[in-house]
Amino acid sequence: MKKKVVTLGEILLRLSPPGNQRFINSTSFEVNYGGAEINVAVDLANLGVDTRLVTKAPANELGDAALRHAKSYGVDTSFVARGGEKIGTYFLETGFSVRSSKVLYDRKYSAFSTVSKDEFDIDAIFEGVSLFHVSGITLAVSPEALELAELFMKTAKEKGITVSFDFNYRSKMWSLKDASIGIERVLKYVDIAFAGYLDFINILGIPMGEGYIGENILGCYKTLYPKVMEKYNFKYIVSSVRNVVSASKNLYSGFVFNGKDIEISKEYEVDIIDRVGSGDAFTSGFLYAFLADSTDNYKIEFAAASAVLKHTIPGDTNIVTKDEVEKLFKGIGYDVGR
Amino acid sequence: MKKKVVTLGEILLRLSPPGNQRFINSTSFEVNYGGAEINVAVDLANLGVDTRLVTKAPANELGDAALRHAKSYGVDTSFVARGGEKIGTYFLETGFSVRSSKVLYDRKYSAFSTVSKDEFDIDAIFEGVSLFHVSGITLAVSPEALELAELFMKTAKEKGITVSFDFNYRSKMWSLKDASIGIERVLKYVDIAFAGYLDFINILGIPMGEGYIGENILGCYKTLYPKVMEKYNFKYIVSSVRNVVSASKNLYSGFVFNGKDIEISKEYEVDIIDRVGSGDAFTSGFLYAFLADSTDNYKIEFAAASAVLKHTIPGDTNIVTKDEVEKLFKGIGYDVGR
Amino acid sequence: MKKKVVTLGEILLRLSPPGNQRFINSTSFEVNYGGAEINVAVDLANLGVDTRLVTKAPANELGDAALRHAKSYGVDTSFVARGGEKIGTYFLETGFSVRSSKVLYDRKYSAFSTVSKDEFDIDAIFEGVSLFHVSGITLAVSPEALELAELFMKTAKEKGITVSFDFNYRSKMWSLKDASIGIERVLKYVDIAFAGYLDFINILGIPMGEGYIGENILGCYKTLYPKVMEKYNFKYIVSSVRNVVSASKNLYSGFVFNGKDIEISKEYEVDIIDRVGSGDAFTSGFLYAFLADSTDNYKIEFAAASAVLKHTIPGDTNIVTKDEVEKLFKGIGYDVGR
Amino acid sequence: MKKKVVTLGEILLRLSPPGNQRFINSTSFEVNYGGAEINVAVDLANLGVDTRLVTKAPANELGDAALRHAKSYGVDTSFVARGGEKIGTYFLETGFSVRSSKVLYDRKYSAFSTVSKDEFDIDAIFEGVSLFHVSGITLAVSPEALELAELFMKTAKEKGITVSFDFNYRSKMWSLKDASIGIERVLKYVDIAFAGYLDFINILGIPMGEGYIGENILGCYKTLYPKVMEKYNFKYIVSSVRNVVSASKNLYSGFVFNGKDIEISKEYEVDIIDRVGSGDAFTSGFLYAFLADSTDNYKIEFAAASAVLKHTIPGDTNIVTKDEVEKLFKGIGYDVGR
Amino acid sequence: MKKKVVTLGEILLRLSPPGNQRFINSTSFEVNYGGAEINVAVDLANLGVDTRLVTKAPANELGDAALRHAKSYGVDTSFVARGGEKIGTYFLETGFSVRSSKVLYDRKYSAFSTVSKDEFDIDAIFEGVSLFHVSGITLAVSPEALELAELFMKTAKEKGITVSFDFNYRSKMWSLKDASIGIERVLKYVDIAFAGYLDFINILGIPMGEGYIGENILGCYKTLYPKVMEKYNFKYIVSSVRNVVSASKNLYSGFVFNGKDIEISKEYEVDIIDRVGSGDAFTSGFLYAFLADSTDNYKIEFAAASAVLKHTIPGDTNIVTKDEVEKLFKGIGYDVGR
Amino acid sequence: MKKKVVTLGEILLRLSPPGNQRFINSTSFEVNYGGAEINVAVDLANLGVDTRLVTKAPANELGDAALRHAKSYGVDTSFVARGGEKIGTYFLETGFSVRSSKVLYDRKYSAFSTVSKDEFDIDAIFEGVSLFHVSGITLAVSPEALELAELFMKTAKEKGITVSFDFNYRSKMWSLKDASIGIERVLKYVDIAFAGYLDFINILGIPMGEGYIGENILGCYKTLYPKVMEKYNFKYIVSSVRNVVSASKNLYSGFVFNGKDIEISKEYEVDIIDRVGSGDAFTSGFLYAFLADSTDNYKIEFAAASAVLKHTIPGDTNIVTKDEVEKLFKGIGYDVGR
């Protein structure tokens, strides 16, 4: 694919007890590298999109290892800044059945939190680029990161580059109020918004609207989404719908609203190996189909099937082929392995 | 929590093929340490109860390792006797789906089977103690162990300490007849009895009683349990109800009868990582709530949710927080790990 | 059991990423040895049948390791030829839930593909033997392997040895047309045919027949199977029926047609650890019951339960006891492991 | 042993690539918990000394896990403060042969760095205590930690408790100048000083002295050590001597100066599995022998043999028996394992 | 090779912490199966000798697994008795450098200890057999095992079968006095005796003899060994000489005395992965060369090189080729692996 | 570094039993990807050189995984051809002490063996390139590979690109005679030749020359190397000298001859984790220093230290920093990891 993509965000070291172990008595942690925008970059590169990552990694062996992950799938890391004290880290205990997952963050004071615009040649970074993606997590990292993200979004907008934004609200990183302030600063640059209806209500303060009947989650989009579109003038609002049966079984689907029509994907029942990165797989699936100029229906089916597959793959990134994603949403069935 | 608990029982080395492997071609065994009363001690200590373990461990490195397990969660092992030939051992092959689990015992001639009252300072052990717990497994280990358990129960009773007893019938350890004789010897000291209706019928020989209609397992408690209460004068009869869908999926609930009312917990569908110790987690959950002077409804909900969580945790012990247990039975939902 | 069995086929090295990992970033592969006829030999030997394997393994350490696998369960490997360039190899990525399994073959130019009748003393191999088994995979390996299989089948038939044949069609190994030619060459020697209705239609070109109503898969056997029997005069046609719910959950049953009556097994819902070798476990289960002169109902119940258990066991072979298989189809329930 | 010991320091999470892997492509890290004073506490508790740990651990699962490590060997953690943002962490890549080890610290902003005297009941902590141990690492963690350490040392001195101090200079934590200022603040309270001659020269600024002939490292103690003693009036100066042959082979010995005589231990050639904690094993070995009122010769032999054994044991702590240490320095030879 | 061998002894389950871990905090144990005479049987079978194992294994999955080990290398297990309570077990902590190995036995009350002659058809077992091997360990297991061993040795002698005996004294199994009584009972049947000079002195009570000068260990064989030969009339006395540099480095050689001449092997410096079974590899190496009618020099060189290689191979058994052994003692050098 | 490098060769899947296990009973194989010229490319890219790999990988998941390895260290794989049947594979059993390593090749019929010049745009590949490297292994793969290598070398020479060639003779791949013919075809294009004196004597048939005295291996270079230079007019002949003490200990050094002077590196004693790729690390070390226009002494010291470090790093590639290499040959000593 000819179109180039840039993403901006923090690269994280993820440490997780193997198998179904708990933190308390685990004698080893599995090592993965990820982060919302890094995952989108890796997922897209894996699907053949020319992708460039903008981040800041510490100038030590763990920074090297994190970037090795991105490079291994073909992401261009030549514009990554190096420096700062430490790699952002999180510890993940993966839940099972009735037992929830647990996450401990250790990302304060990270290399990326000290990011500055002087570390990047933005014009060179955006040369030949079609789409820029960033998420609310980057905005939440630090004031410096928020400022940088805003600059990238503004510049992209000015250069006619499509701007994609995933709300990705994390209550452990900022309050609803801070998120509201931070996100409002950047929404004017956004073309494609990945968000759920609660994000609009809780963060943007847009009321659900009259006429909504609560029994069907999709009903709300007839009252709420048009109001969002009116205010922010997005090209697309894209949402996933997750029904949590247990920590290891979810129902999953997605829909896209283009201001006029809603396209709704199939719903899947998925057993979960690792759900981290499934939201990013949803985003990267949608953006891949968007860049390929497919129909809205194809876009949302590709996004949902991509996200669903991610749940079955260890690690943060969704290493699947276009063919695997299509086979899934087209219902072609299972290869039995012989 | 200020209340102190003492448990008495055998500490066992558990060896199990990793993952879903079978004994026949496994090249390693995972090592855990447990045993019914040890599990109750560790579970309670983990929840913050001051707990003391009475057992006998061999004076070798495996005895050290077993006690290290108990100490690591804060159990007081200062009254543990050391000596004997070997650590009691069992080999566990964990079943999956249509394939059953398998257990091989190698606990005959163990250190604990040679236990004697001369090895323990019972008065010191019981100083400041509120509750003593033991199970039928200890009674079945050897005549020496039965005698010791009886002495501990009798002494506890005399000192006004609540006596908790789990029938825990194991057909590989003793016959129904021997169990009947052994258990009858100690029931007079028991305040809280953990047992199922089959225990009462098969071991104590109490008939189900007229008026019972078999379609609902709870029905039997209207005819059978009052007769048990009349005879043994327990404060509580506590029972779990397990519906085995497959080796890796069970339905699980519990109920408690206080001589007057029955409180019944929610029923859970649970996928199983490791069901060993779930009965002990039920017991420890109940005792924790009992020591906290909670309502009977809270007691049984805490017990059942505690047991259900155990199925998702590798090893014999239920390393959960009070908060996790409460969230489960209050239906607060799943933390998705971010 | 006194009856001796011979099987002929390629022994393969199987390499698979551990757990639920994908090929792309796996840092180790689990090692197993198998192959359709090797699996049948090992499964039967494990059940106590005197079994002899005929194959050709490379004269190197991997050939030694492959034969060690067969010997470890008691298979007689004294007639195995050694030589050729390499061991046939396949790479298996095990699917999970919505994600399919993947297989990559690297078996062309294998030791077994260069097999020749001069390497075997057929009369000695068949001494005292009751049953000979081979599958379509062996026929597909190479012209040399097809010729050898035909010679073994013809010789067995002449010696009054029961000939068992599993169609085992593999589209990655030969076309339907080549399979049709190859399989037709040998069917005249076959007593017991393991095949599905699609094999008869697609490979043998026998039409479904009138009167079939498609809603029930078993219906087809009233119209199709009698025609097959008429043409080939098998003693038994044995088929499994697999309903793929997901890559990790299947519904599974089997039936046998003896030319007159159909016996249908129970249907099982099975969670899957490793489905490779389940077809061979079905075959070996049937043959075991056949050699034991059991009823047709017992044969198919044993076959289906045997196959179902295989799905829960890592590796290609079905290391189960007769007791485990019987307990499953008799519905005796689960040993809870204590 | 009746004598009680208190140590004060930071508990750290250690993460290290398994085997001989490097950071860059390691897919898991082994988990250990340690820290200089924690190691001394665990080593002493393991040898049977009643030991109490004073530290501050975060109130999360990693804090729990770290304390579980200390408790598992019998260390009393009942006075540990909980709170702060994160557990201090370090990443260790273990060298081999010509390849050096690498350490990355991520301990800034740790829970312990925010320690305050208000979090501890010092009088209760020191009740019945004979010896207090701390090292220069604690002083270097933060001004708050230095202040707390000084307070503990001063209080111990006032209460007649022996004060043990290990210089443990870490250039990654503070400069020589800062170390000089910090260490000078506390030396007046010290009875037993663990330090090398370079510590005295570089940190305390005491010149080597005339008459030293450089060919023998022990020679320097005739000129330098008496001057140190004169100034600081220690009871003992204890030093280890390490000759680094390669990252996996060292020569190791120790000596102790009591102001009058020097006792020198045997020199050992040791192959290295894990040298982290060997200095702490030297310290704990000496203190164990000191508490047992042994001869100075025994003290230093026990210290050196203890340290040497540590190099062969994975993890930070020296889990050995008194018998193993004595057998080593008495040259009793190797048990061949049968 | 046409000659058949029978060995008699206990098959053991060996459990050992992986890598260089200690028992105390190991979370898994590696599983191996072995035992002195089982090792000799497996080693010989691996070299192509037709070998039959006589033992008694419990009729459970661990018994199956143990026999699977023997079968996997081609040992005939068709005469193995099944029954008894448990498999003999030992726990091995492998030493490293200055740290000794540790062994804990749990073999009392094992299946083999209850062995009886009624369980074996001795005539059938010895049909066509050239050599019978047993060691002192079998004699030490139980009075029943000693009686059985004596019967096998006596019968072998009567049938003209060469009797090989390895003293294999284990102080954890019997006292020197009991060993003396037990071994004296059987020495009259022995043709080939594997023993060291201390065995003759300490167990048989034969004095070193005059004229020996202690500086060279081989010197003693001029005074002691002729006296042994005179009394017991062995065909060969075979001894290994081990110089323990550390737990992971030994010097190793061997020599054989045929009553007239001594042949001495090369001495090797060997780094140790796993020294268990090296004595058995020495024995099997000698017996292999003996059965091949080689020269005495070849016999002892083959024995020593075989034993030396064993030290580098994990597990109890010496899975090497004749070619590898010969290359080692012929000094052909190292294949660099490309 | 501005200078660009191209290497041409086969990318291989390497499978090796973990730890010190043998093939026969290993239940998993570690996965690495390498190959002589791939290793040089990865090593150089890791040191910061802009490096491009030319190879052909199968269009399947294992081909993807192999390229992921190269990409992860920054190698440009955009010119890699995809297709062919399978990935070249080799199985490596790593020796230890007295036990040799073993290699089994399964690379015949590999994707790379079917390489053709039509699959590559040579002019584009060489754009801006300073140095081209290939080894004798590529020449030995197949006639097609030899032809391609010759074309690349010829083209490079014509374009003024430095041509580097490593003899890398592999007796398992071609005979000395075939190697002689193949290598002679390309030597006229070579500027830098990596070869040992035996390569010149055995492959090129150049006699040692008079005046050589065999006691010092370097002596031969006074008689032999000038003759080689005279005939082939290389810029440099670079040789390593390896003294194999055991499979896990080597002495290693290198020297370079520039037609006039010999520069000899230090000699190192190195303990070996994984010696595969050490020759490539020697080559890449030399080329790195060559591209940096360093002195000949620096070049050979960097090459030797680079190779020596490789022995301590698992896998085929030498992931070290310039700083680590320099510290080693400058003798700066060991970082003790704190």
TrEMBL record, chains A, B, C, D, E, F:
Keyword Cell division: no
Domain Carbohydrate kinase PfkB: 3-318
Gene Ontology MF terms: kinase activity
Pfam families in the cross-refs: PfkB
Keywords: Kinase, Plasmid, Transferase
Record's keyword annotation contains Secreted: no
Name of this protein: PfkB domain protein
Top-level taxon of the source organism: Bacteria
Family to which this protein belongs: Belongs to the carbohydrate kinase PfkB family.
Annotated organism of origin: Ilyobacter polytropus (strain ATCC 51220 / DSM 2926 / LMG 16218 / CuHBu1)
